[in-house]
Write a structure and sequence with these properties.
5 strands, 16% strand, alpha+beta, globular, 5 helices, binds zinc ion, three-stranded antiparallel sheet, 122 residues
């Protein structure tokens, strides 16, 4: 069988079902991270956490989060690949960092033609 997202050939044992789609492991993880990243409750709790602890802006984030955010702000818009290259990250690290930056409403995705960019949230 084939992955519905990337078209990669996958052995039946390694296929993941998600909302009627058959996915390879990579795409499945991506989907799960996307779901997490867009989860309004997660956004809410991240914002609440920062309000409650008196943190504003980028204070509650790790240095790596701040570096990514600074890069996005400096460039205005940047592709995920550029961030990975600039900061020497793995694809997976990038996904995890990005999920948090989205939770905290610092960075959002922006589609232009075929490319997806990261831009400052506001
Ligand atoms: Zn796939």
């Amino acid at each position: 069988m084939r992955c519905d997202r990337c078209g990669q050939e996958i052995p039946e044992d390694d296929a993941y079902m998600h909302l009627g789609e058959t996915l390879c492991e990579d795409c499945y993880l991506d989907v799960r991270l996307e779901v997490k990243a867009c989860d309004p409750w997660a956004v809410h709790s991240a914002t609440r956490f920062r309000e409650n602890s008196g943190l504003k802006g980028t204070e509650a984030l790790t240095d790596l989060h701040k570096e990514i955010y600074a890069l996005v702000k400096r460039k205005g818009k940047v592709t995920k690949e550029e961030v990975i290259e600039n900061l020497n990250l793995s694809e997976q690290e990038m996904q995890i960092q990005l999920a948090t930056l989205r939770h905290c409403e610092l960075v959002k995705g922006y589609k232009e033609g075929e490319k997806v960019y990261l831009i400052p949230f506001s």
